[in-house]
Amino acid sequence: MIERLEALGRFGRFAAAVGVRLVTPPWELTAALAQLGILFRRCLLPVLATTTPLGMVMALQGLAIFDLYGAQRLLSPLVSVATFRELSPVLASVLVAAQGGSSFAAELGAMRISEEIDATEVMAIDALRVHVVPRFAAIVLACPLLNFVGSLGGIVGGWISAVLMKGEPSGIYWTNLFLLTQFSDLWGGAIKALVFGAIIGLTACYQGFYATGGAPGVGRAVNDTVVLAATTFIVANYFLTTALFGAIGG
């Protein structure tokens, strides 16, 4: 228990140090944008390959129910609300944790094991600002961007199932798409993705920055990053959903 409390305290100090460097100059903008580009390219196709088929499945299942009551026009609002609120933010963040978080933990862990981070600190260079903050900022920015792309993929997937596969009128699908969707669904999903990105970024960078034990230690850091980040933000998703959407009948 004492060891866990010590680890939690060290993580808190790490998060505070990263936060301070994130909002104070000098900023490593070029490095952050480079990491963002790499992360976005890595995760774009996996996000679309996940949210689009799930949007198709949601439309198929929803249409089977709505057909019983002649309420087919409510299919696209169902897909829209579910995708913006839950489907895309969670799935995009899971894939960012699996792709980006794991790779950043591995990179920082390799730097720590090879004493590159130690060498940086010996040269009086702020290792957190140079190595950690750009990666953290990249993950925080990538999650909302990929959430937006994933939302489009889920909606298009619903259209493919409803219109191309089941023969529903395309005009009805697009006309009613935002019948029940509110602006709060859009920014609420973006806020969730930002929070999830911060959780993933801090977890990945912390695990990699403090990796020990050679190559096996780097492997443990990568595994712990994915497990801890995904578990934490999925639990946090419940509280965020309640806070953001509970007041409007979510």
Describe this structure in words.
This protein has 250 residues and is mainly α. The protein is elongated. It has one domain (32-248). Helix content is 85%, strand content 0%. It contains eight helices and no strands.
From the structure above, extract its key features:
250 residues, mainly alpha, 8 helices, 85% helix
Helices and strands in order:
Layout: H1 2-23, H2 29-69, H3 75-113, H4 116-122, H5 127-165, H6 170-175, H7 183-209, H8 214-245
Helix pairs in contact: 1-5, 2-3, 2-5, 3-5, 3-7, 3-8, 5-7, 7-8
At a glance:
It is built from 8 helices and no strands. With 250 residues, it is mainly alpha-helical. The relative contact order is 0.17.
User: What string, H for helix and E for strand, traces the elements in order?
Assistant: HHHHHHHH
What structural category arises from helix and sheet content?
Answer: mainly alpha
**Number of helical regions:** 8
Mean pLDDT: 89
End-to-end gap? 38 Å
Helix percent band: over 70%
Q: What proportion strand?
A: under 5%
Tell me the number of strands.
Answer: 0
The total domain count is 1
- What is the general shape? elongated
User: Are there runs of 5+ residues with pLDDT below 50, and where?
Assistant: none
In this structure, how is the largest beta sheet organized? none
Radius of gyration: 21 Å
